[in-house]
Amino acid sequence: GAIVNADINASAAIAGTKISPNFGSQAITTTGVVTSGTELIISGTEPRLTFVDTDNNPDFQIWANAQKFQIYDSTNSQTRLLIDSSGRVGIGTTSPDEKLHVANTSGGASILIQTNNSSGGNILFGDDASNTVGRLQYVHSDNSMRLNTAGSERMRIDSSGKVGIGTTSPTQPLHVLSTTNPAILARNDSGGTGIRMQTDNGS
Q: With pLDDT > 90 as the criterion, what percentage of the chain qualifies?
């Protein structure tokens, strides 16, 4: 028959492989830990997990609907992260246009890559043959910015702002080192000056 409240001692524990309770619309509250052996299924029109701290207000929610997964900031009524049905990730936007879309419609948007002061931060561009065929790297040990194509460094800006193309040790504001001739080609199809050199006084 049915188990009623009178049948259960206040300190009793329920255990057994044949127990499969259905609580219907009844809320379940516990101050302990809920453990699932394989998976925890939450079903509904908009299934969600709500995180509430000691002030008894919902702070964050994890929820899914319309084939979208969201982390929702309940305090500020904002979706902080969204993954759509195509796998695109949006931070600051609920309609990501690319695999990773970072947005801030009220101001500037930044992505921070932070390392220790002797390492390098990298943005890598890969293909089927190599994960590092292209690279944009900032090296903190010498405070240089480096640009790689086809797996090799092509340009470097050192800590003083000198730009080296074909050299990793530029000695002038623009230092071009090449084994081909000419090293620099400037062409103006309109017939004007290709390169103009000017001093501080304009001459």
A: 54
What angle (nearest 5°) sits at the alpha carbon of residue 81, between those of residues 76 and 82?
120
> How many residues would you count in the chain?
203
Q: How far apart are CA 60 and CA 72, in angstroms?
A: 6
pLDDT above 90 (res 7): no
* Range 30-39 average pLDDT: 80
Cβ-in-10-Å burial (0-12, 13-18, 19+) of 113 comes to: exposed
| pTM of the predicted model over 0.90 | no
Number of neighbours of residue 7 by Cβ within 10 angstroms: 9
pLDDT confidence band for 191 (50 / 70 / 90): confident
The phi, psi pair for 10, rounded to 5°, reads -60, -25
Tokens 């300190």, located at residue: 11
Cα gap 134→156, rounded to integer Å? 14
Which stretches does DSSP call E strand in the chain? 48-52, 58-65, 68-73, 78-83, 89-91, 100-102, 120-125, 134-139, 144-149, 152-157, 163-165, 174-176
